[in-house]
């Protein structure tokens, strides 16, 4: 198939990844290309040049509009809308069999767009007002929607999702996250260093439990980093930097337990399955998709309760390391995820090629 992949523009689609959405888009492009599809990545122009890249904007907007995401800035909104509108016009004229939309923009959801190019939209955030109505209005024969977990799907459609929306779990290549049979007794945390990810609570729990802890990931909120993290570094708590995948995998595999501390309704939790693939059991907060992702591979406690999290760490440490590894291999592999993507592409493409009488009448 000839596939257009439309990415979010906040960060480049390139390693080391700024977050799970960037990792998702990169691995989707890489995986589909490896399966023989003709893939064009529509992303910021400073994304990975190894892909066939169509620059939606010259650079990612944290560079051109630093710190303005989620601030309602009119200039950023106009910039992003204009960039996506032009990109969607190019996609409509580009002879693509399908568009996989990961943009978090309302524009690819317009029915005139999804009728022109069969579309799969993957949701990557909890529901929010600027997008909710457009998502709910958009399902149709040539537009399928995926959520990353059952909890995520239920958040978008509390009264039940339409038949065009379903769960497609994220996946990783277990071989890229090598298993280690033993750890060094330490805890590890990885993710974006921002308040909603809760690294400060991981620090507090590790101190209570008497475990050394290493944090990995990009500093997304400088004020949070300076106020809630830096004063507590030292004495067994350290920052290991923002590492590319192979280096991060090696660091994760050395540890004995992964701390998962979402302070928001995390749609999935990619960092958890990366650690689980290396053999780390999880101690964390039961919020968002955490229970669905972690299952028997960890111990979860009420959100934002650092004392309960500290108490859960010994129970998590007692879980054999083969259990988290096998859970990933059973449920969250990249092959399984890509199979699901390809099946959805085939469905929307078939609907476009052979519309039902009802669909033709409503067009």
TrEMBL record:
Keywords associated with the record = Transferase
One Pfam family named in its UniProt record: Glyco_transf_4
Q: Which GO terms describe its molecular function?
A: glycosyltransferase activity
* The protein's name: Glycosyltransferase family 4 protein
Q: Where is the Glycosyltransferase subfamily 4-like N-terminal domain?
A: 19-175
**Has keyword Transferase?**
yes
Q: Which organism is it from?
A: Methylobacterium terricola
Among InterPro entries, the record links this protein to: Glyco_trans_4-like_N
């Amino acid at each position: 198939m000839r596939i257009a992949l439309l990415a979010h523009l906040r960060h480049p689609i390139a390693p080391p990844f700024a977050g799970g959405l960037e990792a998702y888009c990169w691995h989707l492009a890489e995986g589909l290309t490896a399966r023989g599809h003709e893939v064009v990545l529509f992303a910021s122009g400073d994304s990975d040049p190894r892909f066939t890249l169509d620059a939606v904007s010259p650079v990612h907007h944290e560079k051109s509009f630093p710190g303005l995401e989620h601030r309602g800035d009119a200039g950023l909104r106009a910039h992003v809308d204009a960039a996506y509108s032009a990109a969607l016009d190019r996609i409509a004229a580009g002879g693509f069999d399908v568009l996989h939309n990961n943009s978090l923009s309302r524009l690819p959801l317009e029915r005139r767009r999804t009728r022109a190019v069969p579309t799969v939209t993957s949701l990557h955030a909890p529901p929010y007002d600027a997008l909710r109505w457009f998502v709910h209005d958009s399902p149709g024969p040539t537009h399928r929607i995926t959520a990353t977990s059952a909890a995520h799907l239920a958040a978008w459609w509390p009264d039940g999702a339409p038949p065009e929306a379903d769960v497609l779990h994220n996946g990783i290549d277990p071989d890229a996250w090598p298993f280690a049979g033993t750890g060094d007794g330490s805890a590890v945390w990885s993710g974006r260093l921002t308040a909603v990810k809760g690294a400060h609570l991981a620090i507090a729990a590790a101190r209570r439990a008497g475990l050394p802890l290493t944090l990995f990931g990009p500093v997304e909120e400088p004020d949070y980093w300076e106020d809630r993290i830096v004063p507590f570094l030292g004495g067994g708590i350290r920052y290991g930097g923002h590492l590319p995948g192979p280096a991060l995998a090696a660091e994760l595999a050395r540890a004995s337990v992964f701390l998962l501390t979402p302070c928001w309704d995390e749609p999935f939790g990619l960092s958890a399955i990366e650690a689980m693939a290396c053999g780390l059991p999880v101690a964390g907060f039961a919020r968002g998709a955490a229970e669905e992702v972690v299952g028997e591979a960890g111990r979860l406690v009420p959100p934002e309760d650092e004392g309960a999290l500290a108490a859960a760490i010994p129970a998590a440490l007692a879980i054999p390391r083969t259990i988290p590894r096998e859970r990933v291999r059973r449920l969250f592999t990249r092959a399984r995820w890509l199979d699901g993507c390809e099946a959805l592409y085939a469905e929307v493409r078939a609907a476009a090629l052979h519309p039902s009488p009802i669909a033709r009448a409503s067009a």
